Amino acid sequence: MDAFTHVTSKAIGLPQVNIDTDIIMPSQHLKTIKRTGLGVHAFESLRYTDEGDTKNDSPFDFGHGKGASIMVVGDNFGCGSSREHAPWGIADLGIRCLIGTSFADIFASNCVKNGILTVVLPQKDVDSLMREAQVGCTITVDLEDQSVTSAEGRNIHFDYNPVHKHMMVNGLDEIAQTLQSEAAITAFEEKQKAAQPWLYRDI
Amino acid sequence: MAKTLYDKLWHSHLVEDRGDDIGLIYIDRHLVHEVTSPQAFEGLKLAGRRLRRRDAIMAVPDHNIPTKNIHEENPDPMSAAQLAALTANVAEHGLEYFPMGDKRQGIVHVIGPEQGFTLPGVTLVCGDSHSATHGAFGAWGFGIGTSEVEHTMATQTLVLKKAKNMRVTVNGEMPLGCSAKDIVLAIIGKIGMGGGTGCVMEFSGPVIEALSMEGRMTVCNMAIEAGARAGLIAPDQTTYNYVKGRPLAPKVDDWDKAVAYWQTLPSDEDALFDIEVTLDASDIAPQITWGTSPEDVIAITDTIPSLDSFKGNKQATAKTALDYMGLKSGNAIIGTKIDRVFIGSCTNSRIEDLREAASVVDGFQKADHIIEAIVVPGSGLVKAQAEAEGLDKIFLAAGFQWREPGCSMCLGMNPDVAGPEERVASTSNRNFVGRQGDRARTHLVSPAMAAAAGIAGHFVDVRTFNANSSIGA
Question: Looking at the domain assignment, is residue A44 inside a domain?
Fold first, then answer.
């Protein structure tokens, strides 16, 4: 995973609430056995006409948002399906950071694994950043000091899970980290097997 | 200190406490299907890591498989490749696998409980958000992404942050014409799609306790539609009766010991919940969604809400939803003409759901203009049970189709899809934009409501439907 320390970019503004992972990545694109190449399908219904042409008002393809690394989004972003294809598509579009009032639990967890930072801020801050995004302002998000700097120069602090921060800032592989706890996992299994042998079977 | 059921599940699976409410949690059970696993198996291989516990895995194809002509070549080469990848991966690792055509094959969340793989007190994950279903057994079941599938395969653990405790108490009695689906839709309508975000949601109260295991699974299944990654219901005698004798249930020697342990799991009487919600079931009428989120739900007797009832960004979202659905504020939802019926999915494809639907269509005919009314049992075993009870004959006589098990029209990634602007009465769990096919319009309802709509050709109130025959009202 690529390390994430900070990002400075214009931003895509997508104010709709409850953007679900079916909108982010429609299910017909889940048949791939790869993690790559999904960006072209991300947010398909918001970007393309029924004929497959790019919509003139697609914030991903035209105007300030084109090529942006930051997205400012509406409440409860990423709800629904657990498909990691959603953050794979977002990452493939070049987006590294999402800012909103709330993110669905599974989606937020999937973002961490793919080096995408989800920043949760109060409604008024998201509203002002949304306005800035829509007029093409540049925003800076710094994970190391947990701050968002708006175009107006306002510095907004955000909370972030310390374990995730350590992983993101250092670009660590979570599995390699966990495997360092091998002895503790084995000890747990031995104890559990003695107490609840029905949870283990020979196959 | 008094503990909730979720607190007990957390502490009994805590391998390492990392502080800040973060823990390394042991995973007892892992259900694997074709769509969210290939990249995980590939990741293991690329990193040269072993799969830690193959006895903790059960694998099955369900999401992208066809539900008819299953012995013919898959018409979609990408689906075929994904299915072939699963077959190859389970063979390479020696995993338990139920291929298409095997009686035990079916939707992950139907077969786990059916096989006794899902047990009270376990942690269970699957690369599918509807893993919340397994909470019906007092199991901590939750959906994970593919990176976490790989993490579970490699370490049999996940690094998690402890969720908040939320309790939804449903008082009163189950109203006439309603079932578990109506209860959970009403809960989602009340607390909203993000109402349970960051929480594990325990369902309790007399209405929940009176539910069968099938009904409890329907309720927990849709906890994720209210934002909760896991739903929970305390195990009790109903749970033990369901589990006993299943292939992977504790055997005779262990049974009493297992039950004694399971009896310690329910939330302590004085346990504190961070959020409490109460609902009176007597106020509930059959529910139906009108929009493109499960929280867009009303009683069948209601009219479609006015845009003025929404605030802020929600108003624009509601307008977009109404345009997509081809509906107008102020109109009755009863009488809205439908094009298709789908009875199935991990929410409503179990034997009780099929009985409920069959009892409504028995002796009637599907309306002529309905393109297809399909009934998709949740597993080969559900299908066999339904056939033994003659339910298939009832559906077929009514002009409904009787299919092979799978996720089918729940998610539009297999041949069962609705066309643009086609309106579907669906027993599934998500009415998202494009969920059942490009521009398809989904209304979430109970099996009885979907069945009745299929006969009438439009939405009816199932409580008056029987009396009025197919005239509806």
Answer: yes
Give the chain B residue whose CA is nearest to the CA of A1. Answer: B147
CATH number at residue A97: 3.20.19.10
**Is position A77 within any domain?**
yes
- Which domain, by its residues, includes A127? 6-172
Question: pLDDT (tens digit, 9 = 90+) per residue, B29-62?
Answer: 999 999 999 999 999 999 999 999 999 999 999 9
ipTM for the predicted complex comes to 0.96
Residue A129 lies in a domain: yes
Q: Could you give the dihedral angle defined by the CA atoms of residues A8, A9, A10 and A13, in that order, rounded to the nearest 10 degrees?
A: -80
Count of the separate structural domains present in chain A: 1
Which among B473, B276, B51, B346 is positioned nearest to A82, based on CA atoms?
B346
On whether any CB of chain B is under 8 Å from the CB of A170, the answer is no
Interface mutation target, options A82, A111, A114, A189, chain B, most CBs of B under 10 Å: A82
* A122-136 residue pLDDT tens: 999 999 999 999 999
Inspect the interface and report whether the beta carbons of A31 and B35 lie closer than 8 Å.
yes
In this structure, what token pair is assigned to residue B267?
Answer: 């939330």
* Residues 13-52 of chain A whose Cβ lies under 8 A from any Cβ of chain B: 15-18, 20, 22-23, 26-28, 30-35, 45, 50
**Which residue, among B341, B274, B270, B333, has the nearest Cα to B301 in the 3D structure?**
B333
The answer to whether B18 contacts chain A (CB < 8 Å) is yes
What span, in angstroms and rounded, lies between the C-alpha atoms of B236 and B209? 8
Whether A49 is covered by a domain: the verdict is: yes
